[in-house]
């Protein structure tokens, strides 16, 4: 089932400014925080050196740059998430898709390599791998998409045939060509499968509920019309 969404609803579900979950995603690990903090410190030091060595004093402009640099560690995750959201929002049309899980499987992804020395003094390269769950989601029209995400313990409840919902995006008004799609929600298990949390989950859940109620009401309206 594919239901077109209005532009207003689409922009509610995928907001321009980062949500809390999106901010957390780009906040990253402690090492990522340290990298941003280092950039902040270097930025402030450079501004102070430029002012001291060249005697430059731009007043409000220099103050603004100083605050921007000092707070880089805090605002940069918001910027990263907002840029990623904007890439989705560039699509002109969108739709709510409800299908089923056609298949799923587990894979390993190489996420980095680390050089170390063993007890014999030999150089050893250690590969860092991450287990990921892969889903194929589709419907009886033949449409299907594949996505992968980091494997989580609660993913063990996923099974073939379960209902799966997501937002699809296109530049065609009839949604004849799907160019991108969001994370996947499995309502009967309350499970989200995603790498990056594109959706405002409260707005998505409300949209899902209204579409489900509308689909349930249609047979009743048809029966009443027939009985009349």
UniProtKB/TrEMBL annotation:
Entry keywords, A to Z: Membrane, Transmembrane, Transmembrane helix
Transmembrane segments annotated in the record for this chain: 33-54, 60-79
Keyword hit for Membrane: yes
Protein name: Phosphate ABC transporter permease
């Amino acid at each position: 089932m594919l239901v077109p969404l209005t532009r207003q609803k689409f922009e509610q579900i995928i907001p321009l400014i980062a949500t809390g979950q999106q901010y957390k995603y780009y906040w990253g690990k402690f090492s990522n925080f340290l990298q941003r903090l280092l950039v902040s410190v270097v930025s402030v030091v450079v501004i102070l050196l430029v002012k001291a060595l060249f005697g430059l004093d731009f007043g409000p402009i220099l103050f603004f740059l100083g605050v921007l640099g000092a707070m880089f560690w805090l605002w940069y995750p918001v910027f990263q998430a907002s840029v990623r959201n904007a890439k989705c929002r560039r699509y002109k049309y969108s739709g709510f898709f409800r299908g089923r899980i056609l298949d799923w499987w587990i894979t390993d992804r190489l996420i980095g390599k680390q050089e170390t020395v063993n007890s014999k003094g030999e150089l050893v390269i250690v590969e860092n791998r991450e287990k990921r769950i892969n889903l194929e989601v589709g419907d009886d029209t033949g449409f299907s998409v594949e996505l992968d995400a980091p494997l989580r313990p609660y993913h063990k409840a996923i099974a073939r045939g379960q209902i799966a919902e997501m937002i699809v995006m296109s530049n065609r008004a009839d949604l004849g060509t799907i160019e991108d799609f969001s994370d996947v929600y499995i309502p009967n298990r309350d499970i989200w499968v995603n790498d990056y949390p594109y959706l405002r989950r409260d707005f998505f859940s409300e949209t899902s509920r209204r579409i489900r109620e509308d689909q349930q009401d249609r047979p009743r309206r048809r029966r009443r019309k027939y009985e009349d």
